[in-house]
Predict the 3D structure of the following.
Amino acid sequence: MKKRKKHISIILAILLLVALGVPAFGEQTSLALDVEGAILIEATTGQVVYEQDPHVRWAPASVTKVMTMLLALEAVKEGKVSLEDQVVASEYACSYGGSQLYLEPGEKFTLHEMLLGIAVGSGNDASVAVAEHISGSHEAFIADMNSKVKELGLENTNFSNSHGLDAENHYTSAFDMAQISRYLYTNYPEILEYTSTKHYTFREEPLLELHNTNKLLWWYDGADGFKTGFTSTAKRSLSSTVMRDGLRFIGVVLGAEQKHGHFRESMKMYNHGFSQFTFNKIHELGEEIAVVPVSKGEVEDISVVAEETVGFVIRKGEKEDVRVELSLPKILEAPLEKGQVVGEIIIYQQDQEVARENLIVPFEVKKATFWKQLFRLSDGLY
């Protein structure tokens, strides 16, 4: 009889939660966004704090340019191109309509200027010109885009162009685009210098002034990226990021029907995220985590540090119950390169893994000379 009463009490409690509109523990609040797919993640860890049909495939329109800018900055980092390179507009690049910078065949701008033209003005012609400059042809660049998709392990994305105009077999999902956006921000934070620019004079004669289409830069405090997208088929989409009080979210909405719908629905997600969650910081970027002995090195031990800020998103008012584990060798052997990954720090909350970051060495350690090793050995004998 007592067991039956207990079951009835549980059922009544659940019914009360439903009646009050309060989600049960672990259940996600439904915002019922008017979009085809949506997701909100924390930028440092990638933790998902809200999702709605996140894996539905959808045409991304100009949100495609997030990947285009990613590959451009990656090519700069790898030394394949420079931001000061003169990018020449080909006839093919100038043939594209839609949002454009009205480039003329043979016209030249630096890669830096072209990236601003893509980020602020959403230039389809600039996207193709940059693609050709980096990979030699638009087709080769598209192949590079899809290679990066495979590298990131994304299952619901395929690109057929660098600009986002509607095309067969050109799609992504909210989840996948969030991963692409997070990878872009994490590895190339300078992207925010481009995507947070509200106005940019691209050309003095004839005058062409660009105005960023991402209205969150004006309407939502802390917004500083990334890219909007619109075609009549794809509807309105947005990949964006917002930073407030040390907490950065990345949000993606795809396929909003109404005018400004991609901004309105994104703001609903951000309001939910910032009102419900906070970032629990465990270790700062570059903070010493442990000291590990070094064998045969110029130094006898070295402090290993976190490659990124270590922490996790926690619901406000929730018990922390944090456990930290280090995965490190007992001894490191020289030589060691600056930034070399030597282990991991793993964070558990209530015995569930919530964050994992690399541990690196902060400076180079060369192998000690034979005589130095011999001296150290003999010194230890006395």
